[in-house]
Amino acid sequence: MKETRAWALPGIVGLVLALALGGAAVYLFIRGVSALESGAVPVLGHGGVDVTAGVLALIAAIIVASGMLIVQPNYSRSVVFLGRYLGTLREPGWWWTVPLTSQPAVSLRVRNFESEKIKVNDLRGNPIQIAAVVVWRVVDAARALFEVDKYEEFVKIQSETALRHIASQYPYDTFEDHSATSLRENTDIVSQALAQELQERLAVAGVEVLDARLTHLAYAPEIAHAMLQRQQAEAVVAARAKIVEGAVGMVQMALAELQRHGVVELDDERRAAMINNLMVAIVGERAAQPVINTGTLY
């Protein structure tokens, strides 16, 4: 079912018509009662007809008045007559539409849904906790009302389902291959994939997904300590590798400068000793303690 515009006229038209019918009903009823009380005509004569016409006019006025409705800004009112969808009114204001219809309202405002922290396994089977916030709005009131049951609850359930599915498609972190997509390092890519899947799931309800972002991401408590140790070990190894890389460059530069200026001639054994001392001094965690040599190396 697709949303269409309902037939409607300005509310003042319905009000004037209802007042006219109501005034006619009062006039006919009073005239008929007066005629009956005077006894000038039989009960089934002119007076009875006026009373009957007055009652019918009053009923018609009530029916006409039932077609008047007010549409608030950023709301829609759908018109349903005897189980048949006649259309939807989006323009704010006072309207008169088909009488004797139900007119359920649907908010068209932008809304947020923040999921609870849910526990799910990532691509590698590690248990993680994840949560997200979804920004959405209704763009088709007919689908929201008639295609799904309680569209707000439908958005909530489908959002959590899509979040679980997306979380299982990526690892929490990539320790070896940093070019691969992970939940922790590529939140923009993951959020885009979540928004796309949510749009596919919620289109049947006439809902547009404006944005979807992760608000919480962490390892489950039972493995959080072990994974923290792994991350710390990875950081230490990366730092050591960087230090060694820099130390090698500094040693090469020192030897090149000594040779270029002719400060000292180093044979292979002295060069090896020099390299060893420089590497220890640069890479070591503690400050180097200088030793003054007053003799030779032999």
TrEMBL record:
Residues 66-231 form the Band domain. It comes from the Bacteria. Keywords: Membrane, Transmembrane, Transmembrane helix. Pfam families: Band_7. The chain crosses the membrane at residues 7-30, 50-71. InterPro entries: Band_7, Band_7/SPFH_dom_sf. Coiled coil: none annotated. The keyword Repeat does not apply. This is Band 7 protein. It comes from Thermaerobacter marianensis (strain ATCC 700841 / DSM 12885 / JCM 10246 / 7p75a).
